[in-house]
Amino acid sequence: MWTRQKNSKHILIELLEPVIFIDETHETSPVVRGTVIINLDNCVIQNLSIQFDGLKKTQWKKDSKVQQLVSKDLQIPATTGTTKFPFEMPLPSGIPESVKSSDIQVEYTMSVRLLYKKMNIPTVQHEESTKAIVLARLPERQYHPLATQKQFADWCKYRISIDKKSVALGSKLGIKFEISPLLQGFRLKQIFVQVLERRTVHDDTNQSCHFIYPAKNSHLNLPSKSINQGWQATCDYQLPDDKLSHSTMEYQDFKISHVVLVSLIVSDRHTTRTISYQMDVDLLNSQVSQLDDRDYLKLPAYNCVMTPQELQKLHSLGLYTCPPSYEDSIAV
């Protein structure tokens, strides 16, 4: 990235949330919270401020452009004798997530600037420390396996399903294969899986393709003989976290999207063919994988403090009912 890191040994920035997760609906503004710790003895703080900056760099058709997305300043009251300064800074709604790719880069940094005087020294000293801030987009709230309709080829019927519509880079993607032959001597010789990445800047689109392979302790056992009846298998594929960029929403001047490409190499007694199919997939920032599978979207379960016998008695008298579950309430 192009931002030069500046760090003072006397300034420590501790973030409450090193990664700021943002909802793609932009219903709420992201907030950066943390504490600035000043490690200086025998000094008087003149000024302490925080500067949050966001930069976007795009490159297309041999041209490049750097644009400032956000610049926000926060003054922290400096109290004599205090070394820890908590802060909270709301960020603008709708700013894009952090991106690092060959064509598109979005970077956020937080800089702490300190002006102080040492005892018996009239000169004002200046120090600065900068810390990178990562904004990561959360997946959609609705989770459904992404499955194709049953597909028909000359030699077989097939269906390919992936277990997640959104998946973080560096994690595993489960793929289920279902094949029913339509002729004698049908053989499934090989299955290849690739991820196609499209990076669009303005009206210019570049793309790259990457093979992905079965994850450790996951194997895809292909039939060694011809298939005379339905065959199916499931395999977890490992997504890299260094070769691909994550997907993004569609912003005014850029978008990154991904497609899973599946190639089935099949044959009869005389001829070999390739059957190809593709599915869109939302690849998330690898930081999202630290969240516990969807649990961050769940509300805590309602627990009644009464015994079942007490509840039954109140129900019979029509005096009490438990509130509906969250899932039932939003389904109305």
From TrEMBL:
InterPro entries registered for this protein in UniProt: Arrestin-like_C, Arrestin_C-like, Arrestin_domain-protein, Ig_E-set
Chain ranges of the Arrestin C-terminal-like domain: 157-279
Any one GO cellular component localisation term in the record: plasma membrane
Gene3D superfamilies, alphabetized: 2.60.40.640
GO molecular function, one term: ubiquitin protein ligase binding
Gene Ontology biological process terms from the UniProt entry: ubiquitin-dependent endocytosis
Domain of life: Eukaryota
Protein name: Arrestin C-terminal-like domain-containing protein
Organism of provenance: Mucor saturninus
Taxonomic lineage from the root: Eukaryota, Fungi, Fungi incertae sedis, Mucoromycota, Mucoromycotina
